[in-house]
Amino acid sequence: MSTLLDVKDVSKHFTMGGLLSRKVVRAVESASLSLSVEKPEIFTIIGESGSGKTTLARMILGLELPSSGEISFRGKTVSHRVGRKERLQFMANVQPVFQNPFEAFNPLKRIDRYLESTAKRFLKRSDRAGLEQAMDGALQKVGLSLAEVKGRYPHEMSGGQLQRAAIARALIPNPPLLVADEPVSMVDASLRMSIVNLLKSLRDDLGVSVIYITHDLATAYYISNRLIIMQRGQIVEMGDARAVLDNPEHPYSRLLKASVLSTEDAGSGKLGTDPGMVALAGELVGQSGRLVDRPDGRLVRVY
Amino acid sequence: MFAVVRDLIRYNAEFAIGLVLVTIMVLFACLSFFSPVDPTMIYMAIPDMPPSSQYWFGTNSRGQDMFWQLSFALRNTLTFGIIVALLSRVLSITIGLVSGYLGGWVDRVLMFINDIFVAVPPFPVLVLFYFVMRSGLNTYTLALIMATLGWAYDARLIRSVALSLKHREFTRHARFSGMSTPQVLLQEHLPYVMPIIFSTAMANMIWSIGMEVTLAVLGFTNINIPTIGTTLYWANNHSAMVVGTWWWIAIPVVLIVLTFIGLFLLAVSMNEYIDPRSRLRRMGA
Amino acid sequence: MSEDLLKVEGLKAYYQMNYFGVQREVRAVDDITMSVRKNEIYGIAGESSSGKTSFIKVLAAAIRPPMRIVAGSVKYDFKGLAMDVATATPAQIEAARWKHLSYIMQGSMSVLNPVRRIGKTFEDFAQKPLGLRGDAFRQRVLGHLDRLKLRPDVLNAYPHELSGGMRQRVTIGLATVCHPEFVIADEPTTALDVVVQKEVLALIREIQQEMGSSVVFVTHDMSVHANMTDRVGIIYAGRLVEEGPTRQMFFAPRHPYTAHLVASLPRIGDTTQRPALEGRPPNLANPPQGCRFHPRCPLVVDKCKSEVPPLITVANDHRSACWRWQDVEPLVNPQAGHGVPA
User: Fold this and answer.
1) Please, are residues B197 and B191 in contact by the beta-carbon 8 Å criterion?
2) Is residue C74 part of a domain?
3) Which of these, A234, A258, A254, lies nearest to A244 by C-alpha position?
4) Does pLDDT of C322 surpass 50?
5) Fewer Cβ atoms within 10 A, N terminus or C terminus of chain C?
6) Is the peptide bond between C66 and the residue preceding it cis, with omega within 30 degrees of 0?
């Protein structure tokens, strides 16, 4: 089994403040995970704001360099400064899915412009027919067609179409990995499921692995194979998505699950959170602990 | 383009007035190409004639027909203003966009230079140039000097817009579409900067023309080239107010004031029209 | 049934704009009739650009051009002050603000002045409507903060020194310190993390029950509605399409749009395929004929394309605007796939 993406002991520290009040923020602390080439999966990173999930995603996309540790893609290190050519080659393999479909396109520019640029740059196509074929092929994969998109401006399309077009754009170089940072947190309920279902079908039908970053446990349960739960930069629990969420072990994971608003007793107005749970999860922040294996294959941080 | 201008004229009185004023001024300046007299020659007409049907703008104490003289002067002044505006826009766009987008040490170096130019007072520098270059200082060299002095504030303005654009998601999308830095800057970011460029271009023209007039009135430019400023210089030199040849001062001042008002109105109305938000609303978003 | 505090009748609020000759009329609120009772939490759900934001702007008496009320009335029956937003004078609105009618907004950072201490902000907001000064005012505020489980020293803090959850609690404090009879909460927890969100929601509910005031709670998140509200109204394309007691809305929706919203919610412990609703919300400048939901509706028949369905009572306290309300099935049985409680 060969690895597609290997994140090994990656940490990221930011130095905040000026000369007098220097403060080091440990955004991500020795995170490790790996995805295999043979088994495409949706790998979810769950965390609240400040958990370091976005920083981790940015490092995987190469937008941020780790302070320590190594990220390698198909055995090749990507966590150091590289030239434009190497950067483009990496981009062809790892593409992002954006948070807000309405923001992902320049409102003053036509949508197909992004698709065309991608096809030109990554597929090295320059003939019109070849370009259109590549664009149409990618759009077909997400249930659109070039005829629907060509020459149109973002405001002429719905949020769902835009998010599809953005994903189609990312699919043009046939990347084995997509990184989706909160792709549904900004969209309406009626749109949310169409995007989540699309990510699912990318994995099942096209064999694309997706790193799905979210704070929403319910969609994570719905689509992911494996997940990690992060608390203040630390991975506290990692394993099979269903196993972990059905029965979370780490106190923080339990708290997250307990805080999910369920619709099972709609209208009853029950909103209590056990303060003991909050306190227990809060106490563990900043303690290092270590990740240990459990018989069902998950890793849990113990102290 | 034609439809845009037509719509603007129809729905925006400011634009219509500004356009009329600027067009009249430009036409008047263009008349100089058909001038029957050479503007550098003196005593070609009877001196000190008030405006009449023969000499529409009168004649001055140097025996020049003010109509043709001012036509040349306005042409030179406008050309000067346009060159300064164009050159300084190119500088401020390039520096502002690059600085905001690239950030890091590039930004620090460029903004350090920028701060120097913001701090340097332009007037003494221009006077210094006059003393060094003397007759070498013509419309074009002066425009070049003014342009290098007039970009700094606007570059800062453009940088701040570029800084916010940098963090918009579509910029990242463009990067991951394989677009190069010049492509991102020129195709993605430039449209958002256009309103600033237009309004500041007009303001910059007004600034540079005003500066040229000041310099010329004080005699710190090549006074043999007819401009609005040098016209006033000669008027002052011949004590026009004392002698009573009021038209020698009043008419150039009226011309330059009308030009300024015209440019200002155009800047304001174009700004509103070209603003991305109002543009999007018109597109029906 | 308790009496109504707010009665909205036939409300139409349009945006009328003119950009360089392009005339547009956006019918953001188009013929809404509803009421909010005393001492209840009324939820409003809707997609972005459904007109829900415009609707609550009208309820909050914050109508600015280019929006204006074209028809209808918005009548409040406050203690000692009855007013109709459609005809109220600025002085009346001013008198009602904070004391009777108040709001909790989404971005706590934009409500709180970043360079003013929280205590000063409380003075700015509440001193005038409460008519208290000095120590009496301070006691009142401290008492209120205690109720919100905030320590007195937050009054000396600047907004940036507080966490997101604390800030949101402070804005709730500001909105409720005058004991208003009617509170509009516009997506107050959308920017918060799940754990804090639940705490803040519980807090709003607690405060509401203590004060006995009415709350209009706006969010697009149906799972928040499920836990917060007594009744829910669903707005689609500027119209109220369904309204009813929260439990009924989730377990026996009578409008296909509501049924879809409920069915599309994923749940832990349940991996069955969730349906997605295709299409886009209609453009309010040019809405479809007939029922505005018909282009996306799975139950559409010819009648829906030409005739606007009226909002009729379909069960006790439950109204729906659908020609085929009897055929609407809950798409997912809410009891199926019960998650194991943690």
Assistant:
1) no
2) yes
3) A254
4) yes
5) N
6) yes
